[in-house]
Amino acid sequence: KAAAIAGTELEDQTDELGDEIDAKAMLQRELQDQRKTLPVYKFKDELLKAIAEHQIIIVVGETGSGKTTQIPQYLHEAGYTANGRKIACTQPRRVAAISVAARVAQEMGVKLGHEVGYSIRFEDCTSEKTAVKYMTDGMLLREFLGEPDMASYGVVIVDEAHERSISTDILLGLVKDVARFRPDLKLLISSATLNAEKFSDFFDMAPVFKIPGRRYNVDIHYTVAPEADYVDAAVATVLQLHVTQPPGDILLFLTGQEEIETVEEILRRRTRGLGTKIAELVICPIYANLPTELQTKIFEPAPPDARKVVLATNIAETSLTIDGISYVVDPGFCKVKSYSPRTGTEVLLVQPISKASADQRAGRSGRTGPGKCFRLFTEHSYKEDMTDETVPEIQRSNLASVVLSLKALGINDLVSFDFVDPPASEGLLRALEDLFALGALNSRGELTKTGRRMAELPLDPMLAKAIVASERYGCSEEVLTIASMLSAGNAVFYRPKDRALIADAARQHFNAGSAGDHVALLNVYTEWERSGHSAQWCADHFVQPRTMRRARDVREQLEALLERVEIERRSCSGGDLDAVRKAITAGFFRNTAQRWRDGFYRTLKTWRTVFVHPSSGMARLDPRPRWVVYHELVETSNEYMRQVTELKPEWLLEVAPHYYQENNLDAPEPKKAKAHEQGAAVALEKPSPSLNDFFDV
Ligand code: ADP
Ligand code: MG
């Protein structure tokens, strides 16, 4: 009898297995059918023919036409990878690289990381087998440092070129050059309709291959008067659409994670009270830091009788295509990086989008049928206030990192580098000056040994310098940990509203001895390691396990790189924290401030009024240290220093003697700010490194 039961069980299991295989086969068939409905499919042969005939092609097509997911597959199927060379497809956004690679692996019926993989900073999901490699543009740039002829690749697709990220812009200049001496390399520049002519001109009149779009009419609605609070207006609009409009999903553009989380919470609260007559509203957030496993949710169709609302950052503008969107709600803002070469600060600011962006956003609603776009700004503001196009990132960023990479590639003459749009010379000069101050360049503008080591580390030059300097102070282990924590994201701690005080106290524990936030990060990591990566430990200390795991991954990769640049791994064994703080100062000596009157600080270099960020352990200290070094400035209503550590002014003379002189550092704490402000400002005027030495800029 027992055998009979076992037999039935076995049968059941085999049945289940059979069902599973059937389901898989069905899904595959469905996916293959879907592929054939994409606009690019009809042009497959024509496109392959054009690629065979030309070395460089500009591919233009509406978002969702299948450029990113299909073209690499076509090339793979057509034998472009048969010689063992890979296809690279670059994306400006991390999320897009992962999500698209996952989709393509699914379509090809392979495991992600095998034939299809992705590579982003600190995360390599590829293998020996990988033939189609999605990667961030920054990663390809990094690979370029080690492989200037791009020999592993037979095809390079610079995708989303219209986004004009810094790395994409630099890549365009580099691949243009490589294509000249590698006639076997195929180059595709792909863009969502904008800028095609510009790219074609840049690549010596390369042919433009247009994939005709399938775009339905989109009805555009404007608000009559400007909205005082676009978040409120957005919530109201979404709810109203949900209650009054026929089926179809909604896409709402917001500026960042925090805003998305706020709106998500409000929407959840407000829909709870809607009663059972109104359909369910499924809320799907998407932003860069959203855990990968949650990101796929935006692609899942809503259950029958329910409506999906996607709360997205700019990422849904062109990088990701979500099917089934009929309504777009566009407040008209996005967060952009903005840099002032004069003061050397880079801040993220919420700014009005460009006309081009607004049109792209509207277009998201007209992909599968007629759509509607609700703009939460006036028609007048669209016509009169918005710029035509977004300024390329290279013209509004700190270029130190880019210049360092270019120098490491042996490109010395930055002025003659082939930029699509050259950066302002003021910005280039500033970058050279910064790198000189960091000791990465000598006075002739040539890369030093320090600079070469810094360039190997995929970090901001200041952080890279702190690591290189840690060798001298015998604390590379500690600084490596701090750098990994800083790179793992800002969400180290969480603070549930109902237990805010307990969370604050738990956090304060890491600041014991008030050696500063950098050392606190070190303490968090060390204790987490000691706990055996315990989830309970994380919960007890209100620490985000995800951030910790990421920090560990980052650390492992940095360890390997340290070996490569031959920086000895040494620990000051928890004893000499001054050594750690000195190393940090060696990288961040530009980011220093002096306490002025109660509560605020003045930056040493630029004399800006800055505050200690409320999240800092220093925020609760009394009295606060007179001199501090900080990781970055965050601008909200005021400018806040994030990650703050006390320093001794004499360190500045030690770590940056060419940057600070003694008389810069002894401005007395004034009673009347105003008079002193001017006096001290003059005292701080110092001779800049002689820029005439800086050759051809
Ligand atoms: P393009 O690059 O031209 O904007 P894509 O190749 O990214 O177009 O997208 C083509 C289609 O593939 C989209 O319409 C969408 O249906 C599907 N798709 C893309 N990425 C995913 C994903 N991660 N999950 C599910 N479907 C996806
Ligand atoms: Mg795409």
TrEMBL record:
It catalyses: ATP + H2O = ADP + phosphate + H(+). Keywords: ATP-binding, Helicase, Hydrolase, mRNA processing, mRNA splicing, Nucleotide-binding, Spliceosome. Residues 48-212 form the Helicase ATP-binding domain. Its EC number is 3.6.4.13. Residues 237-410 form the Helicase C-terminal domain. It comes from the Eukaryota. GO terms for cellular component: catalytic step 2 spliceosome. The keyword Cell inner membrane does not apply. GO terms for biological process: mRNA processing; RNA splicing. GO terms for molecular function: ATP binding; hydrolase activity; RNA binding; RNA helicase activity. Belongs to the DEAD box helicase family. DEAH subfamily. PRP2 sub-subfamily. This is RNA helicase. It comes from Panicum hallii var. hallii.
